[in-house]
């Protein structure tokens, strides 16, 4: 296992309040660099910050006066203070939708909100994490931005690299659907098809990082992963600020690797520690598709260990059979009194239609998983509809059209009033 | 021709600063209602406002303190003051992208910007106009939102109606591509296929408005058109505010019916009159696809009359062969010293790729038309690259994937370093 690539000289690295890399397991610290695993215990590395100089109310004002993007939270991210002036996609500050009609259908008496991340530049939450990774890539003088991907991430990396003027080279399984290849390739970077499945692509990327051929390459979800992951914290920041600097009482988050859920919890904890929100209980719920639900299975069984599965679900962007952050997700769900639940593909499709019909939000399959699980949690009494709740839609239905391909015309008529009346729509 | 549907009692209609409907040709005034053509001369009706009570600096502050959507400009739109609190899609406040890399490729020495309206909720500028139409629909107690459409508008109407809790019934040609049917139908409204072409659909809708079967129906682009059109003004407002309350020196806008271009000009003129921007010359340029370029042809020939054409272009969302506002577009281009230009479908595809490669913005074909025309205008000396310029991308490339379907993999390799090196990418 490649625990670390050669670390660039980091003494002059300006990544704002980030001061070091810290092992989530053993706490050992390392200088900021393109490393992702602890040299002592192989645990995952996280960013350590110095937030000690912040006055709460000054910080709040500074954030509120900031740009309508994740960069309003630059003081809390591993990015330089002048990040908003650099060429990047400026994702974030997506709508928090008051979902009154969906809430009524699900029996909510408290406010239900949808955090709709399809509003990002390439229409998924991946723009948040890639935006942070690209600042790290600039700091470490990387010239090529790379990743392994089966969809959303490829487009997010291609677009972000184009805007930043970096080369991109993205690796995907060679037999991906044509539409996904088009969306990933249109930004003009190199798009390499690997003869193999996603696991083969990942293995190849790990090899490439240790090879001279990969020198100067930043793999957003490998050697830049600690920086990349921090982008997900901004979902927590935005939700709380959009609620008027308040924690939601319940929050439902989809699980792929589990990174997003753990980072949202980290973000909420940071806001509490910084005094930006009042400390009060909140419950975190995780959502998986039944066809790839190793974390939900462990939660229901009361296990701490995640048993890897072979994914079989239409929710491709959540189809990680061996989620690296699964154990942390279990910890958070249990610590906060939440749960991890799963829904079938049929329920995913129904939930996509339910959200579209009630709120005009067309979610990708991952969003269908989240809304389907939200419904199931209410019905099973695990989530309280009398408490303020936020569910996250991480991407856009335009990217997973096949899931609702059965949607058709209500009627076909001749262009006459007679024919229209006969159709029985009035 | 149906000049007006029975006008609802409008004395108690609250549409903010809107006071009446006014004929663009003869100036005759009518009460606010679901009317769209002058009873005297058949000219198009526009909204008349009372902006007389506004103090410039108070208005500016009020706008700047408003929501990150078109509703920050509620004081200048035909909507009630409390519009932001009603259930709607809250479109607008989309990014104004500093397009330095595209500018460099095109030889700009002044700043080039892309106003990227793919950031709207259903990823096209149509959300702006539909959001205004829906407020009029509420004011006139309509219970069904309707339109004729070949694509973007159907989705925008379906989504907005779903959020607002109104019924929707959208009419489209029955043989539309399946993906477009899915996108329009997913919001759960009625979607009726008409056996005929888009013209047949339009004719049918006009008939339906005059028929009891259409009672209580608001057709956003017919009997609500005066309100609907005003949504496009917000593009002008946002561009100027995002420039720091300054007019751009040059602006390039795609032409379908020509409504968007004329409303943007109207918006710029309003900002000047209100004192929100300094009055200085600006040039307006119109962009068409060669396969549907009746306005560009008239401009080049020095004609005032638009000769209708049969559209034949991949830019379907601009394919209106007899653009209603064509004569007004000619007036504006000539008055401001701009031009109307057109590009071939091959140039459209190249422009989509150019914008994606340089700025990470994936535009639909209409955006390709605008960027292609921008390039041609610079090359032909009609647009000055030493002057600050804004070009508008009105929609998202995910909706017109076929245009760039030729995009493929750079290379296909086995998952080995040897195979990667042999591909010649490093």
- Rg of chain A: 22 Å
Greatest interface (CB-CB under 8 A), with counts per chain: A-B, 80 and 80 residues
Percent of residues in helices of chain A comes to 25-40%
SSE pattern of chain A, N- to C-terminal:
EEEHEHEHEHEHEHEHHEHEHHEHHEEH
User: Which geometry of chain A do the CA atoms define?
Assistant: globular
CATH class of the largest domain in chain A: Alpha Beta
- Count of DSSP H/I helices of chain A: 14
Q: Report, as a whole number of angstroms, the end-to-end distance of chain A.
A: 66 Å
Order of strands across the main sheet of chain A: 4-5-13-10-11-12
Keywords summarizing the entry:
homodimer; 426 residues; alpha/beta; Rossmann fold; 2 domains; four-stranded parallel sheet
What this model shows, in words?
The structure is a homodimer of 426-residue chains. Chain A folds into 2 domains: 18-53 and 126-228, 3-Layer(aba) Sandwich (Rossmann fold); 96-121 and 232-404, 3-Layer(aba) Sandwich (Rossmann fold). The model of chain A is unreliable at 1-10 (pLDDT under 50). Helix content of chain A is 35%, strand content 15%. The longest helix of chain A is centred in the middle third of the chain and has 15 residues, at 259-273. With 426 residues, the first copy, chain A, is an alpha/beta fold. In chain A, the strands form 3 sheets. Chain A has a 6-stranded mixed beta sheet, sandwiched between helices. In chain A, strands 8-7-6-9 form a 4-stranded parallel beta sheet, sandwiched between helices. Chain A contains 14 helices and 14 strands. In chain A, helix 8 (233-242) crosses helix 9 and helix 12 packs across helix 13 (365-379). In chain A, strand 6, helix 4 (152-164) and strand 7 (167-173) form a beta-alpha-beta unit. At the A-B interface, helix 4, helix 5, strand 8, helix 6 and helix 12 of A face helix 4, helix 5, strand 8, helix 6 and helix 12 of B.
